[in-house]
Amino acid sequence: MIILRPKKEFKAPIIAECISPDVFMGKSIDEVAKLKVYEGNKERTLGELFNFSYEKEPEDKIMIIGDVSKVRKIGFNMRKGEIEVKGDVGMHLGAEMKGGKITVFGSAGSWAGSAMSDGLIEVHGSAGDFLGAPLRGSTSGMSGGTIVVHSNVGDEAGAYMRDGSIRIHGSAGQFLGLRMRGGAILVLGDADSRAGAFMTGGRIVICGTLRSLLPAFTIEGVRPSIKVGPEKVSGPFYLFVGDLTEGGDGQLFVSKVRNPHLSPLVTKVMAGE
Amino acid sequence: MSTSVVQSVTCPICGSFCDDLELTIEDGRITKVKNACAMGEAKFLYAPDLKHRWLKPMIRKDEELVEASLEEAVKKAAEVLAEASYPILYGWSSTCCEAIRVGIELAEEVGGVIDNTATVCHGPSLQAVQDVGLPICTLGQVRHRADVIVYWACNPWEAHPRHIERYTYFPDGRFQSSMWRRYLTRWGMLAQRKRILRALSTHPYIKAILPPLARYELSPELFVKGRKLIVIDVRRTRVAEAADYFIQVKPGEDYELLQALRALVRGIELEVDEVAGVPVKLLEEVVDVMISCDFGVIFFGLGLTMSRGKVRNVDLAIKLTEDLNDRSKWLIAPMRGHFNVTGANAVFTWQTGYPFAVDFSRGYPYYNPGETSVVDILLRGDSDAALVVASDPVAHFPKKAVEHLVKNPLVVIDPSKSATSLMADVVIPSAFVGIEAEGTAYRMDFVPLPLKKVVEPPAGLLSDEEILRMILHEVRKIKGVA
Fold this sequence. Notes:
The structure holds two protein chains of two kinds.
Chain A: E1 2-6, E2 14-15, H1 21-24, H2 29-33, E3 36-39, E4 42-45, H3 46-49, E5 50-54, E6 61-65, E7 71-72, E8 82-86, E9 98-104, E10 118-123, E11 143-149, E12 163-168, E13 184-187, E14 203-206, E15 218-228, E16 231-242, E17 250-255, H4 263-272
Parallel strand pairs in A: 1-6, 2-7, 6-8, 8-9, 9-10, 10-11, 11-12, 12-13, 13-14, 14-17
Antiparallel strand pairs in A: 1-5, 2-3, 3-4, 15-16, 16-17
Chain B: E1 3-9, E2 21-26, E3 29-34, H1 38-46, E4 58-61, E5 64-67, H2 70-83, E6 87-91, H3 97-110, E7 113-116, H4 123-132, H5 139-145, E8 148-152, H6 156-159, H7 163-167, H8 180-200, H9 204-209, E9 228-233, H10 238-242, E10 245-248, H11 254-265, E11 274-275, E12 278-279, H12 280-291, E13 295-300, H13 302-305, H14 311-324, E14 329-334, H15 341-352, E15 358-359, E16 366-367, H16 374-380, E17 385-389, H17 393-396, H18 399-407, E18 410-413, H19 419-423, E19 426-428, E20 439-442, E21 448-451, H20 464-479
Parallel strand pairs in B: 6-7, 6-17, 8-9, 8-13, 9-10, 13-14, 17-18, 18-19
Antiparallel strand pairs in B: 1-2, 2-3, 4-5, 4-19, 7-15, 11-12, 15-16, 20-21
Helix pairs in contact in B: 2-20, 3-15, 3-20, 4-14, 11-12, 11-14, 16-18
């Protein structure tokens, strides 16, 4: 295990795609210290920015102790091994990740788990916007793996998601599951408006309050409980289907008890049927 | 006394970029402006006034701005930029394309982030365009053919005063006629009705049975023929007064309204009676007008791009246009603010591949708004120097962003004494492009037009392009590549 500690408080953003077990594996500390990173527009070596220490077991683990909220792309394209961060971490954590595990005991920046296809990211603090969502212009979102966030997340979590699962213990921002095609998002807290915009498949489960429902969703019924991955979440839940403007059949489960503002609409439509 | 008249002058103010101005010049000063709106006239007549301008380059020494030579100021600016590890280069929308081109070269040379004012304006539109495309046309097409015009979340009456008069509702096009007469008739009828109702309401009995006077709407059925104007906004603006249909949307709920319209256009029945404070009945009526027209166009403003939902609002508006095209011919166009913000996007795109927020810190262009956009960089406190060209971020950015901007070395190239230039460490005054210097700019519909030089600049002032070239040369000297 290689332990990294930042030498100073960073100011300019640091792009450190090399902080990944795949890159570190089989390298000595000296070799790791020579890996290239960018600090703003200046090319530096990892050794100029971090202090290193080494522990024998486990071999494929990287631990970062300290605030690395300016360090971006940690665990980029990672395939195996483990990264543990004790502190806040910057943008693009575990972007395009294909396996392994990242644990953060702090908060993560935006685009955490961006377009990941396998592996596990667990954030014990909050996460920024675009959790699991791809970069601008791309339509290939998360296609597998799991993201667990123990606090709140920002806007557009799970955008363009195709498979995999996201579990949010806190509340979620706007456009949860935007353009989602598959996979599952579970929010144990509240969700801001516009959840499921443009969704054509997959399921979103909101156990708290949904601020407002989009007009292009229609009520399908009430379900007593719902299965998200291996877990069974008990309800009752309203089941809405949408986004109808996209011809979609994504499922949006919203807690019945916590959303009394939706009941007049549901009653009206159900009575009409 | 020498008097001359210059015709077909372009107006360096708003995105409409009018090109039919006529200026009278007496003894090297503009004394009369014809055809311009109040904003354009004010700029030509009063902006070149020496009272509001820097006439000498300034450098901050011991907390005071003191006069310096141009060489000294350029050298200092180049040092600041060349030494920085994450400089930002911001502004660009109020200068010419030639200057912007040099700016991008400079950004690449110093490894900085270059961003234009679209970042706080139509940036979300540009992102949405990348997601779903943009069916756009030139304003000439709109003038001659459009029979339904939608102004969504913008107020051209005040922000683009000649837009309605030149391109949309009031001009006589080849296939569409002017709606001036209808506008005046409407005003006359409304005034008449108001008078009658007021006279009637003096009688206590009639007053009691009359409905309240709050709504001065006239039924659109009164005006069956000709162009239709639909205005969607959070408040009743002057354009809304002129409109055939006005939809007052609840602030921040444009997304819901767009989605409802889209559902109706696609023939999906809505389960709700009201969306974003608007009755679905009214929406159905408006959708009928929209799908039965021959040529419709949606103009959208900052009410969509900078309210809740941002890029997704525009995204959905473009999708709505796509769906409308199944029924009729529809186009969509953003109402750009500065006269050359479209040019800034165009030059950025042909030089780097991206329209705004381009990061050169790793030597190649990288783009990710939210990460490389200037306001976010300033809020996170990443940057360590800044160059501001033809813009005033200190007056317009969030307070925290401004605090970080002025804490670090700040170089400003601007003709006038703006809030940003007063806080700067190096100020290099320039000539007003479009008045004292020539160049090229893009109208909001991506039509490039020339900017004219009509008067001489004050002695010693150079154009933005020349100043930037000097800084670039100096930076290359420092980096040892010149």
